[in-house]
Amino acid sequence: MSFIIYQHHQCRVPQNLILEQLRELEVDISAGQINRILIENKESFHAEQTQVLQVGLETAIYIHTDDTGARHQGQNGYCTVIGNDLFAHFSSTKSKSRENYLRILRGNADDFILNEYSRSYLVLQPLPQTYSRCKFLVDVIGVQSKVVAGMGHCPIPALSC
Question: Would you say 66 and 80 are in contact if contact means Cβ atoms under 8 Å apart?
């Protein structure tokens, strides 16, 4: 199983050539079995990917981000990468918005984290019409709950629109 996953993902060997390799080695396996190994029961990989992002964000001094778009089966899609020289997290989504980026950073949490600078920026900048009716559900809490890269961050619920 490890050989199939390694060949396909790391070496970029297509499934039909993996099947050919295994049959040359006299391994009795079908094309369907190879496909199932590559696409089923991947919950542990997704959990590990989530942990890599969480630990990376908690320990990183800095992060780089980038995203790129591509069409797949007639649909627009986007790949966002977050990382630095010690970790990388890739996420595929159907959106390339700031909100999508924040959702990737926050993982399973349904709130956003803003520091005082972020909040003042949102208040002072003329927001697009879409956000003009948004209001903070609560004020920034005075007690800092987390410090990242020397900046205090306080949790507040998502903007109410």
Answer: yes
Helix (H) or strand (E) holding 58, with range, is: helix 43-59
Tokens of 89: 């997290």
**Structure tokens of 36?**
């199932």
**C-alpha–C-alpha distance, residues 108 and 119, integer Å:** 22
Do 138 and 160 fall within a single domain?
yes
Number of domains in the chain: 3
List of the chain residues with pLDDT < 70: 110-115, 119, 127-161
Say if 142 falls within a structural domain.
yes
**Burial state string for 64-84 with b = 16 or more CB within 10 A and e = fewer than 16:** eeebeeeeeeeeeebebebbe
Q: Identify the H or E element spanning 64.
A: strand 64-72
